[in-house]
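Note to self: user wants both folds in one dump. Writing first protein now.
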Amino acid sequence: MFKKILVANRGEIALRVIRACRELGIAAVAVYSDADREALHVKAADEAYRVGPPPAAQSYLDIDRVMQVAASAKCDAVHPGYGFLAENAAFARRCTAEGLTFIGPSARAIDAMGDKIRARGAARKAKMPVVPGTLEPVRDAAAVRALGKKFGYPIVVKAAAGGGGKGLKVALRAQDVDQAVALASKEASTYFKDGTLYVEKYLARPKHVEVQILADKHGRVVHLGERDCSMQRRHQKLVEETPACIAGALRKRLHAAAVRLAESIGYDSAGTIECLVEDDEFFFLEMNARIQVEHTITEMTCGVDLVKAQIRIATGEKLWFAQDEVDPRGHAIECRINAESPARDFMPCAGTLTAYREPGGPGVRVDSAAFAGLTIPQEYDSLLGKLIVWGQDREEARRRMLRALGEYTIEGVDTTVAFLQLLVQSDEFASGTYATPSVDEFVRARAGDLSALYSGNASVSGSPPGPAAEPITVEVNDKRFVVRVHGSLTAAADTRPADRRPPAFKAPKKIAHDGATVVSPMHGIVAEIRVKPGDHVADGQVVAIIEAMKMMNEVVAHRAGAVASVAAEVGQTVETGATLISLRS
């Protein structure tokens, strides 16, 4: 067994790995950027080393610096978590070259699956159906339009080195191709240092179902069931559950194909094979050669610690159980708790948490590195934590999730907690009939409700999201009430079960905006300016792209007009409300 492991990541996944190390009796070494000096993963580790300033490219992605820390701390292995360097074959090879064990699949397996175009070819060789599309890179927007004509719209433009929804854009028609290619290439170059793109046919209403694989270095592969990850916004997963609501026969074929693919490439760690399911057919989408964000729900149903399993496999240990010994029990659901404002198109919200209290009780798990007083850096993604529940069946798990969400208190920034309550209460989620477009459809249908909810004019079980007045406790005829001041006193007490309590929505206020400037909606980095002085813009036209918290955010003109001047430059850091473009009045 290893003596000391460098955890080359941050936040909740770094804390998760550190806990696994402690249970195995292994010392854990943390790394941190200047933005994470007081982070929980830093305090939880046995040792911690600074790796650089806040930008990930200068800290967590700086391979030379990470390797220097591993040498200084005398580590014998590195766990990359997910994201950052987790699927970087060059990093895996560098670890091996410097005498360190990379806790993850071999560099060869990462190469096979890391490039999505090569992965599609490998899936075909393993006789696994793939989504119709290209097996070669596309050169430019003209080539994409030609493919759109061949496959029929809509189509998906995707980064060959992508993952996690980054570098993925949908073109509904030929007119959308230029923008889809530009944004996908920009994101791919920013996050993966590789702008290579390919094209797939866009399936209208599939489920996104993935199979958890565990494989050792001796040729044995098992699956630990599947997860339904169809509840997505901007191709970012919000809610996951296991088992998926699919037919039993389809489930068996999907599991068998996933194991066959992992065996064919000699996979040797924890990994996830992602597929799209439409009717009674499934299609290979990609493979994530790492631990997955939503590994938690598989752990809850299968009773296997996947992070400890990764570590044991990396030592050369043979798998300690066979496929017929895997016996998933019950149902588990995960909700991702993000610092985002659903009422503002899920805009990331950096800021300081003024209050933070996690739910508890039977069957409830929280994986988080958040705490009251935490300042959320704008340089990283918006994930605050993961709320996971287990139930004997799906309905118990769903109701337990609603109860737990109602207990979650986060103040100081907008979060997805209240939105997730509405989503899990929805008829489509309750029935299990949802598909990948369902969240977008839900948001459009409930736009007014969300605006009211996040402006403080509505209440759901649990604490209202975002900054709000302090609660006041009063007693009337010996009955306790908790109220908040939102212009007037509004009683929040309600003894009905959370699952049956409808949110009391009010119509949202419309805010007039007739100024001559287009401003940045958030703190971030200017990734693109799409206009120049003298250009005429239409109302709603995208004029700039702001990169914030690992997302590319479009900035649109609030009215038509001619551009008088451009106040920002590409690469410049801007604050919320900063002028980007001025229009002639």
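First done. Writing the second protein, which came from a different request thread.
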Amino acid sequence: MKIAPPIHYEAILRAITERTRWKSSFVADVSVFAGVLAILYAIVVSGRIWFAPFTPVAHISSSPRALPLYAAYSLVRIAIAYVLSLLFALAYGFAAAKSERAARVLLPLLDILQSIPVLSFLPGVMLGMVALFPRRQLGLELGSVLLIFTGQAWNIAFSFYASLKAIPRELDEAARLYRFSAWQRFVELELPYGAIGLVWNSMMSVAGGWFFLMACEMFVLGDRDFRLPGLGSYLQVAAGAGDMRGILWGMAVMIAVIVLLDQFVWRPAIAWADKFKFESVEGAAPRSFVLTLLRQSGILAEVNRRAIRPMEERVMSAFARRWEERGERPRTDGAVKKWIARVMGTAVLAALGWLALRALAALARLGAGEFVSLARDAALTFLRVNAALVLGALWTVPVGVWIGTSPRVARLAQPLVQIAASIPATALFPVLLLLLIRAGGGMESAAMALMLLGTQWYILFNVIAGAMAIPTDLKEAASVFQFHRGERWRRLILPAIFPYLVTGMLTASGGAWNASIVAEYFHFQGKALSVRGLGASISRATDSGNLPVLLAATLVMSVIVVTVNRVLWQRLYRLSATRYKLDA
């Protein structure tokens, strides 16, 4: 009788594991290769279109078959604008956080820029870009990208600034102790600490970018056609023709693109950024199948080992040596830098002085009565802006904390929130206005509703980011000490999300001032419906070409924004950087 050989279960299990790992790595490598090919193809096709000859009259197809290509065009524009916005936000937020003197200028300027209506830049930017590239489509494409950039950059910059000001003292001291260079400090400390806020504000920026994309793709000035093929132009053409089937197809494709972005970009980014949470006890981390797939890729691991990591080590070593040499030798270029700064400052002051003289000459045409009327309009809009902030915070704070503290809820709510925030408020406003007028609410209620639609998402996304950044050990400490719900909110949640809430309220304030231009003066069914306010004054002056009133109203808005910034927001930022900083 033959004796059966012993079964080596460990060897069998090892073989099965190796086979499964090989299959996972193969699938990951094929997916990465296909994704890289798709990105390269999109770049080639976009470059061919951007450098094509300028077409005086653009043809926008109304067939649903054109939607995949149009969606790709729009996605490329938003992606380029987002990359520019991120780079700008990192540089701007870093400069404002590192110098108190610079912050006194940069923060109010940023607040003004985000409050001035983006659509007011549209004619000038488009005409300027077309004049620079009169024979290529490049001018129109660059103009649309720049305008989308102006709608995306501000809240990311505010988020990064707030994160830098809230870095815990012990981390700052550790970086000084290990003599980090400026580059090492930025890469190893500052950028990781602000990663969660950057990701969520990036999601908000891209969601808001769809509104500006629709405006840029359908720009017509008089008899000149500056339209671009894309999702926005498709929806506008369908709406103008009363094609409800086309509108539904366009909205379905837009929602599909948003869901795909959530699954393939934002959810992996959130799961990746969770490792930078400042905590000593590991909690339940968000998961993403795309991030798991990328981590299993042998191609990416090899590229990281052979190219990315050696390059990173060389850059770090170079900056570290430069830092040591700078500390050892005396500085001799201080006088040159001072002279360069003086020359640049003189040039900027001269330009500002010339612009100020031109502005004063235009304002001199106005009488005292018109300035009094503008002051009353500003007071009304100021009340609406703050009412929208309060109403938005009442529901976004509890809902944002609920989403941010529960990974299971976040997985379900995150794509829904992105879809809701991505649908342009102006697309919903006609329907909302019609319902409110029939219900007897009037234009005042409609104006408040549109301003609320333009503010609430900034608060919600920042509160979600703040709630997700709460350290797990603090949550466990609250459970050990048996905090009841009121104590948990007062001692843990509100202090932890306070820096993020300040950033959300500040960017929402800018969004409310921006939305007032449309909310207080709206063309509906062949009539101009309006309520008194500064936004209505700006829109009315734009329609009539009254430059002095337009300039005066914009100046009044800027003064109000700067004053509120100095009196309220800068103090709250200082409070969040001192009292509500996570220090040991």
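Dump finished. Worth passing along: The mean pLDDT is 78.
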